[in-house]
Design brief:
Order of helices and strands: EHEEHEEHEEEHEEHEEEEHEHHHEEEEEE
Shape: globular
Number of helices: 9
Structural class: alpha+beta
Helix content: 10-25%
Distance between the termini: 42 Å
Number of strands: 21
Largest sheet: 7 strands, mixed
Strand order of the largest sheet: 11-12-13-14-10-4-15
């Protein structure tokens, strides 16, 4: 999980807390971050069965203010942001002018402004790009004094309920009453919190934006509960891989278009009809199934995982794709991966050959997610 080699690394607001718990720190996205505490396998399985607390304060938290902010953001994203109701969240993509994916992000309509969470490794580039593309009257506030914690797992809601967190405003639901992709403003005593119900593990869970000065108090209170343990980057990566969720900079980048990344759901019908977002002509030329390549899941035969950078080859050993994420699935007890393959080979059950360090490994295209999602979705009427 190391992404940085020579740059000066920043520290998280919870740096000393991680170290006091024995967290093994590694470089990631320009920060020193805990990769594990007691071990990736144990932390992964704990989160699937209980509740894990992740420090994701390296990510970028941004507020957009100004009349027409949603419509302005739609110029560089294909999501239907202007139709987003107060307290609702949408996953979308930040697109370059040629339609390439600059980042993926979450957008929340807080009822007062738009709150965005972008990836840590790209946040400064994202902010610069948005400032260059959005009208001058739209102000962008990078929330550098806020930490971000993610509480994930089937016992996350029970744990959060023990803190007696209250809605900031009358009419907003309690945290436990939020559904998947909903958010609201809250108070924990006199500490303001922004809480959303989503996550990057495939499990039910919450993201909690908290003033950095109060982050340790919140982390200590949560981890004092029997059902909560701190979880590092290693398990975060294996959990999101099992959930079939891409990691920016690995499973997609500026050279990849949304349909190629298997993110058709992020191209909303209304926006496809308007076709007025960055790179729309090029992006929509591939919709829904006209891309030459596609991101797929793979089951790997045998016990040896295939890793990022391994080549997908044809019968003549010609490279025609690449593995972008791979590892051993603690839940399934076998290796899994994501890769880009030719569209003709993207159907579930298709046999794929991967070459890794001179060895040919047989894989099979698999449906994603590898492990079913357990989000707390609102019942359909």
């Amino acid at each position: 999980m190391s992404d940085n080699k020579t740059e000066t690394l920043k520290t998280l607001p919870l740096d000393s807390w991680h170290r006091s718990l024995g967290g093994r720190m590694v470089p990631f996205a320009g920060y020193e971050m805990p990769v594990q505490y007691e071990g990736v396998m144990a932390e992964h399985l704990w989160t699937r069965e209980n509740a894990g607390l992740f420090d994701v304060s390296h990510m970028g938290q941004v507020q957009l203010n100004g009349k027409g902010a949603a419509e302005a953001l739609e110029a560089i994203t294909p999501g239907n942001i202007s139709a987003l109701g107060a307290g609702k969240i949408r996953y979308t993509l930040l697109l370059a002018q040629d339609g390439g994916i600059l980042d993926d992000l979450m957008v929340t309509n807080t009822g007062r402004n738009l709150y965005l969470v972008v990836n840590g490794a790209t946040k400064h580039d994202d902010i610069a790009y948005m400032r260059g593309q959005l009208p001058e009257h739209i102000t962008l506030d990078h929330m550098e004094d806020a930490a971000l914690l993610a509480l994930q797992g089937p016992k996350a809601a029970d744990a959060l309920a023990k803190l007696n967190i209250q809605p900031l405003e009358a009419g907003w639901p309690a945290p436990s009453e939020l559904y998947f992709m909903e958010a609201g403003p809250f108070l924990w005593g006199d500490i303001p919190l922004g809480i959303s119900r989503s996550g990057y593990t495939g499990e039910d869970g919450f993201e909690i934006s908290v003033p950095a000065e109060h982050a340790e108090k919140l982390a200590v209170a949560l981890c004092a509960m029997d059902e909560v343990k701190p979880i590092g980057l290693g398990a975060r990566d294996s959990l999101r891989l099992e959930a079939g969720l891409p990691l920016y900079g690995h499973d997609m980048d500026a050279n990849v278009l949304p349909v190629e990344a298997n993110l058709n759901f992020a191209l909303s019908k209304a926006r496809r009809e308007e076709a007025n977002f960055a790179g729309a002509e090029r992006v929509l030329a591939q919709y829904p199934n006209k891309a030459d390549k596609k991101r797929v899941g793979l089951f790997v035969n045998g016990r040896q995982p295939v890793r990022e950078g391994a080549s997908v080859v044809d019968a003549d050993d010609k490279v025609n794709g690449a593995v972008t994420s791979g590892g051993f699935s603690p839940t399934l007890q076998k290796p899994i991966a994501m890769a880009y393959v030719p569209a003709a080979l993207s159907e579930t059950g298709t046999e794929i050959i991967v070459e890794q360090r001179g060895k040919l490994i047989t894989c099979t295209v698999a449906d994603m997610p590898f492990v079913p999602h357990n989000y707390h979705r609102k019942p359909k009427l």
